[in-house]
Design a protein that fits this description.
Elements: H1 2-16, H2 20-44, H3 53-76, H4 82-97, H5 103-129, E1 141-146, H6 151-154, E2 162-166, E3 169-170, H7 174-181, E4 187-193, E5 199-205, E6 216-218, H8 221-226
Antiparallel strand pairs: 1-2, 1-6, 2-3, 2-4, 4-5
Length: 230
């Protein structure tokens, strides 16, 4: 485990040298230093600081800032897609170039907006291609979620489990489940297939004022067919 972690860290450090923004930043600092030295020689007939002063200032601050940002993203579990990093790099370069050519600032703003929309629709398309977390079960009605403090929650029902019978009645659809509940509104007995495919029985008395649907959430067939539930 430790070896895998070290290898991943080394690979991450190696990717720093593959990022184009690193070389753009170095070239930008050297160019700014060149302009500064040129201005100093014009004003004072000599240079005051080396043209690499900006580069020496950028590297320590950039490395420290990058390490802090890396630790924060690791701690929070945040993952930035490669496409997003590429768009940010392009926008950063154009924004810096806008210092000398102001119309680029407008182009940069437009590209930033288009880039955001591109990432949004790309991620949406990728999500729609992913397999469903839950698919319709032939054994019964599969639970998508349980409302806290509801009768279902107090009976210990869990997400992903399948209800195969209620009050002795076999149920395969959500409507059948609710009809079976009407057989005895004061008490319900459920046959449940848990996430380990083991059958267990749960039962409980029902009281006035409690959630009339037991507090269960199910995958809607229409949403599932349209690919909106995953």
């Amino acid at each position: 485990m430790t070896t895998d972690w070290l290898i991943a860290c080394l690979m991450g450090l190696g990717k720093i040298f593959l990022h184009p923004l690193l070389y753009v930043s170095i070239a930008y600092c050297l160019f700014i230093g060149y302009l500064r030295v040129k201005r100093e020689r014009h004003d004072f007939n000599t240079k005051i600081y080396s043209f690499s002063m900006e580069l020496r200032s950028m590297l320590p601050q950039g490395l420290i800032g990058g390490l802090i940002l890396s630790f924060l993203t690791l701690a929070t579990g945040l993952a930035i897609p490669l496409a997003a990093m590429s768009i940010m790099a392009v926008v950063t370069v154009l924004a810096a170039a806008g210092y000398w050519y102001p119309p680029l600032a407008i182009i940069t703003a437009v590209l930033a907006i288009l880039g955001r929309e591109f990432l949004h629709y790309t991620q949406k398309a990728m999500d729609q291609k992913l397999p469903f977390y839950f698919s319709k079960s032939k054994l019964g009605v599969q639970i998508l979620g349980v409302i806290p403090q509801s009768p279902a929650d107090k009976m210990g029902l869990q997400k992903g489990e399948v209800i195969s019978k209620i009050n002795g009645v076999v149920v395969r659809e959500e409507e059948e489940l609710y009809r079976a509940l009407q057989i005895n509104r004061a008490h319900c007995k459920l046959e449940v297939i848990d996430n380990n495919e083991q059958i267990r029985f749960v039962q409980r008395a029902l009281f006035d004022g409690e959630h009339y649907e037991l507090g269960l959430l199910f995958v809607d067939d229409q949403l599932k067919e349209s690919g909106q539930v995953g």
